[in-house]
Prior knowledge:
Largest sheet: 6 strands, antiparallel
Strand content: 35-45%
Radius of gyration: 16 Å
Structural class: alpha+beta
Distance between the termini: 28 Å
Amino acid sequence: xxxxxxxxxxxxxxxxxxxxxxxxxxxxxxxxxxxxxxxxxxxxxxxxxxxxxxxxxxxxxxxxxxxxxxxxxxxxxxxxxxxxxxxxxxxxxxxxxxxxxxxxxxxxxxxxxxxxxxxxxxxxxxxxxxxxxxxxxxxx
Length: 140
């Protein structure tokens, strides 16, 4: 199954992540849990860059699902170019999409995944309408 990033997506962030020796598994390629760490890393870096870090006493983003499809093995040594896109803006949620490719093999997607993010009022433990500043960043 091949993941398709929606046509109406918006590239919001990209970064390079070095593949660490300790991220490998017994088969000599990147352990599947590391792909989720890479997606988490770009998501957190992006949130920090836009001032969207969660406030446990207030509000912020929560991931309610995450997935990853693996197409081509990533192996040590090397750097991964990770790109994050957003789409599917709704009242309290949006979708994020991530692609991963080796820096030395531009355009060859090795893995792609995503997550659904919901904006939450933490003390009330309820979803909350996305703030206007976040809606502006996500919308086309």
